[in-house]
Amino acid sequence: MKALLNVIWLVFGGLVLALGYAAAGIICCILIVTIPWGIASFRIAGYALWPFGRTVVDKPGAGGWSVLGNIVWIVVAGIWLAISHVLTAIAQAITIIGIPLAIANLKMIPISLLPLGKDIVPSDARYPTYQRA
């Protein structure tokens, strides 16, 4: 079921979303100072391609720099990404087939809002909180 939902997700917005995050990652990596946000954007792009069957957990050992970086991210891009995910989820939830896609879109809000200090792990792992991808 996860594979079917991932294919539907990919066709109806996942590919465009992943390409957008990848483009943002490339721009951030070109600007040297913003490389941590670029790496986070690439991680989110991979998650945007296949969100079903994966979940976001806190990265062990993430410290104060992640908090500071997340504050900068919220001001610059995070709030706008979260708003766009909510608006897209509302549009997807109009149809019955789109409801799981809308839920997946809402599931992406925490990592698009606070990307630093997070890991993406398989959700079928025994203890996903304690495992890294």
TrEMBL record:
Pfam families: YccF (PF03733). The keyword Membrane applies. NCBIfam families: PRK11770.1-2. The chain crosses the membrane at residues 7-24, 62-83, 89-106. Coiled coil: none annotated. This is Uncharacterized membrane protein YccF (DUF307 family). The keyword Transmembrane applies. InterPro entries: Inner_membrane_protein (IPR052937), UCP028777 (IPR031308), YccF (IPR005185). Residues 4-54, 68-118 form the Inner membrane component domain.
